[in-house]
Amino acid sequence: MHSFYYIHINMAKGRILFVTQEIMPFTGEGDIATMGRLLPAKMQETGRDIRVFTPKFASLNDRKHQLHEVIRLSGMNLIVNNADHQLIIKVGSIPSARMQVYFIDNDEYFTGRESAVNADGTLAPDSDEQILFFGRGVLEAVRKLAWQPHLVNFCGWFASMIPFYIRRINKENAFFTGTKLVITLSDDSFKGNVGGDLEHKMKVDNATAKDLRLYSDTTYLGLMKAAITYSQGVIIGSPNANPELIAFAKENKRNVLDYNEDREEFYAQINKFYDTLIGKIEE
After folding, report:
1. Does residue 283 fall inside a structural domain?
2. What range defines the domain where residue 262 resides?
3. Any domain includes 187
């Protein structure tokens, strides 16, 4: 009786875009990968319409995971640092969750790259272009799907340019107007700074003075603080999330949902958190 009441009284709607740095079973286990797999599925069970995007690194074998290219979404060129780079989008499925996962790929940025971070914790020399391409690629694919999310929940430093590109796209096309941004803080990090010249390449992409100021610190903490600043909500998705980032989010009066080790209860809290941020949805 209790479970029946919960399902019907709390049936939630709305379109949520999940952008995650890792996701099981395509990547190894960890806080990001586990939440990337379970949270979208749980939200889908509540009646929400979801899409899930992640980077397609070389460690993900197409044949093993039965990935195939989505021709209608692939093929467009994205300009990064005044050069064209082909966007390749692949899709795989998680049958047990009845969930599809879209993978952002590119021969230059992802072929031969095993993961977002090297084995020694450092980054690739062109990691600035990787995160620019990934953030832009996700949002352009969503636009091509003509699927307007009410909320974007992104997790991992590799997705930290999502807020910048949503702002940029809205200057040209109001596709994401009203879309709320939620960042999930987890246990990811890297050593040193993002490689390349992020400031210059953001200028090429018409970054504002505020954008450049916020993203001027290209350490892990710097990128994540910028992403928090441009987000309406912050979810503490891991007991190992950086305490400085948690303090920053609370000091800057962001809507913060603290970590809960009871996973079922936590995901129910997240569902309500989304509703609070999205507000009333006009169907």
Report:
1. no
2. 2-8+16-278
3. yes
Dihedral pair phi/psi, residue 199, rounded to 5°: -60, -50
- In a domain, residue 131? The reply is yes
| Each residue's pLDDT expressed in tens, for the chain with a length of 283 residues | 333 333 333 444 899 999 999 998 888 788 999 999 999 999 999 999 999 999 998 777 777 778 889 888 877 888 888 888 999 999 988 888 889 999 999 988 887 677 788 878 888 888 999 999 999 999 999 999 999 999 999 999 999 999 999 988 888 888 999 999 999 999 998 989 998 899 999 998 889 999 999 999 999 999 999 999 999 999 999 999 999 999 999 999 999 999 999 999 999 999 999 999 998 776 5
- Helix (H) / strand (E) element for 250: namely helix 243-251
Output the six-digit token pair for 132.
């620019």
Q: What is the pTM of this model?
A: 0.91
Matching residue, tokens 């990064």: 80
